[in-house]
């Protein structure tokens, strides 16, 4: 039956009126916020669907073109600028990441399907962006990785994928012209990483054995072990020197903190060239020409940088100092040309991000762009590092973000827990933390034991401590904020994704009197089910997971795992929960949230469930991000008494997307 036009018009008008009424931000209810002056409310779209979002600058190998990610209309896109003519081409495709091909014309792009993490490698002619992409790895259920773009051979690349065996990644040579695949090396089932040079030569592999890991060099006859470390230690491989005598390693072998070493493969001696007494060396930037480090960084609180001379003799710190950026800031080198005559880099703080290009020959810095969020920097809050003591005496680290507000009273608080858990929060511009602070909440981001970046002892102290000391570390950080008069102990929410989602469920079931409500995003509720259903290619890392969490095949471990699984403690829940799950999550399967929600409802608990279609372990698509964080906004406003931005008109675009 056809609907008369006047009824359609009336329906549209009524809907728009409802939208306008809903668009008004909600007023605050918490006493500390009611009579306080706050900065204006920032809409959700500014954090999660910014049309001015920009980043990922990459120079082409020949230096003639510059590519970056941005937004065209309402769709994610890659922009390519001719640096001579300033003409820009636009590739209107959403991609996870991309990389220039050796010919400075084509792009490799990496994309999965609806969050399933089976990444395929696509090949695209950037001179003809309207042409169809070529899927180089159209294998069903296979995850592929571009191992190496081979210098001097634009039609050849190295790729690793798990088509032969879903648990292992073999190394292949692929010819882009004749489309031939040739196996370079077969995985023994213990190889975690392959190591190649820019000419496409396989130099080494990292193998994970039962109780140790080792670096093995490829020789004419066999693999030769040259460096070994315990499974409780961590080693990351950098480039080999041109004569292949030396290799750079980030290593904490026989020490607590990761340091940057230059390792002599002939006499097996190490020389430490960068270290920090409080934290690991976190990242190293290397020259493709000299294969030596340009800069190393650590993050004890704010970023600490260590500089080295480049192949042409200049020091990056001298050049950066000339610009007189206000400290503290973070420096990230994003790309360089093949001859390293041009470099792109990023200067970032907790409130803004700026992009630059440096011309080595003229020693001139060219401003490229501001991140879209920079327009709101005056409204954003400061993120500050702090240390606190756990109840067992261990020194722990974290960050807090206090809203820009004229009151000194204790504030409603969101404990925002990072994922991993073998990860960490760093000093940076966190969109979620800034959105929460803008609503009037104190935001705590705690690097509980087991977090990376603070050394081996910090990490290993978390063995067997899921729902144990890892959780009481969060409570102790919250106690620190209470003692400082920052946090209102009666109005605290816990929120996080992945492990942070698990921590949320633990908080709401194990210590229900501490948290007024919780937001779980792709968090696990059952540790047994988690470890029995991980992706098959996680096999090299399963020993670590069993060591920290438990082995479900062992009855004693299984009993402990069940005792630490929130699914079995639902009866303790007191406050409301918002549970958000990606439908295609390959890590924390949908059943984890389905079962938790069903049990909560069965026992009469308050829960809202958002199952997000075409998403995996995280929410990537902007219409879904708007939907999810609008729900978070309203949920926390109702729970904690902060403000919410109200209906965001970008949601209309999301429905049409």
């Amino acid at each position: 039956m056809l609907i008369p036009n006047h009824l359609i018009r009336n329906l549209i008008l009524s809907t728009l009126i409802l939208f306008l009424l809903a668009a008004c931000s909600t007023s605050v209810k918490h006493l500390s916020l009611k009579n306080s002056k706050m900065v204006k409310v920032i809409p959700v779209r500014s954090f999660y669907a910014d049309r001015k979002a920009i980043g990922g600058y990459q120079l082409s190998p020949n230096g003639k073109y510059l590519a970056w990610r941005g937004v065209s209309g309402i769709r994610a896109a890659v922009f390519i600028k001719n640096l001579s003519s300033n003409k820009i081409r636009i590739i209107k495709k959403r991609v996870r990441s991309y990389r220039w091909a050796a010919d400075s014309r084509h792009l490799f792009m990496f994309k999965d399907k609806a969050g399933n993490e089976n990444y395929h490698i696509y090949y695209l002619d950037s001179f003809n962006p309207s042409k169809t992409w070529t899927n180089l790895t159209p294998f069903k259920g296979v995850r592929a990785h571009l191992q190496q773009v081979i210098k001097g051979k634009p039609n050849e690349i190295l790729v690793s994928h798990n088509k032969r065996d879903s648990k292992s990644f073999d190394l292949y040579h692929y010819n882009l012209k004749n489309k031939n695949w040739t196996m370079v090396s077969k995985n023994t089932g213990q190889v975690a990483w392959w190591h190649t040079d820019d000419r496409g030569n396989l130099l080494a592999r990292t193998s994970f054995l039962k109780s140790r890991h080792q670096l093995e060099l490829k020789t004419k006859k066999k693999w030769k072990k040259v460096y070994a470390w315990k499974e409780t230690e961590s080693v990351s491989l950098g480039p080999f020197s041109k004569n292949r005598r030396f290799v750079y390693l980030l290593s904490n072998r026989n020490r607590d903190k990761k340091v940057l070493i230059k390792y002599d493969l002939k006499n097996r001696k190490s020389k430490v060239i960068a270290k920090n007494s409080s934290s690991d060396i976190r990242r190293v930037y290397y020259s493709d020409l000299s294969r030596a480090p340009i800069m190393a960084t650590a993050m004890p609180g704010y970023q600490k940088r260590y500089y080295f001379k480049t192949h042409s003799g200049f020091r990056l710190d001298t050049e950066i100092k000339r610009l007189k950026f206000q400290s503290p800031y973070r420096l990230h080198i994003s790309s360089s040309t093949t001859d390293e005559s041009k470099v792109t880099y990023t200067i970032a703080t907790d409130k803004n991000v700026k992009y630059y290009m440096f011309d080595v020959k003229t020693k001139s810095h060219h401003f490229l762009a501001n991140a879209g969020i920079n327009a709101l920097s005056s409204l954003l809050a400061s993120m500050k590092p702090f240390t606190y003591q756990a109840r067992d005496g261990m020194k722990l680290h974290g960050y807090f973000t206090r809203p820009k507000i004229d009151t000194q009273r204790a504030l409603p608080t969101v404990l925002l827990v990072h994922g991993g858990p073998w990860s960490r929060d760093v000093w940076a511009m966190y969109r979620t933390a800034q959105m929460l602070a803008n609503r009037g909440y104190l935001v705590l981001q705690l690097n509980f034991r087991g977090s990376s970046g603070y050394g081996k002892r910090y990490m290993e102290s978390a063995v067997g401590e899921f729902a144990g000391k890892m959780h009481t570390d969060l409570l102790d950080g919250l106690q620190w904020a209470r003692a400082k008069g920052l946090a209102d102990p009666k109005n605290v929410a816990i929120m996080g994704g992945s492990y942070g989602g698990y921590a949320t469920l633990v908080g709401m079931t194990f210590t229900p009197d501490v948290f007024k409500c919780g937001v779980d995003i792709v968090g696990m509720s059952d540790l047994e089910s988690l470890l029995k259903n991980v992706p098959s290619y996680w096999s090299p890392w399963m020993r670590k997971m069993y060591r920290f969490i438990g082995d479900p095949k062992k009855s004693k471990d299984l009993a402990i795992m069940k005792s630490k699984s929130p699914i079995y403690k639902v009866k303790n829940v007191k406050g409301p929960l918002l549970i958000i799950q990606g439908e295609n999550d390959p890590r924390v399967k949908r059943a984890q949230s389905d079962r938790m929600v069903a049990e909560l409802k069965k026992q009469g608990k308050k829960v809202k469930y958002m199952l997000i279609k075409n998403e995996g372990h995280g929410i990537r698509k902007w219409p879904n991000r708007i939907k999810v964080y609008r729900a978070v906004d309203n949920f926390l406003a109702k729970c904690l008494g902060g403000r919410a931005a109200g209906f965001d008109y970008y949601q209309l675009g999301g429905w049409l997307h």
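The domain at 26-48+376-526+565-656 is CATH 3.40.50.1820 (Rossmann fold). The mean pLDDT is 93.
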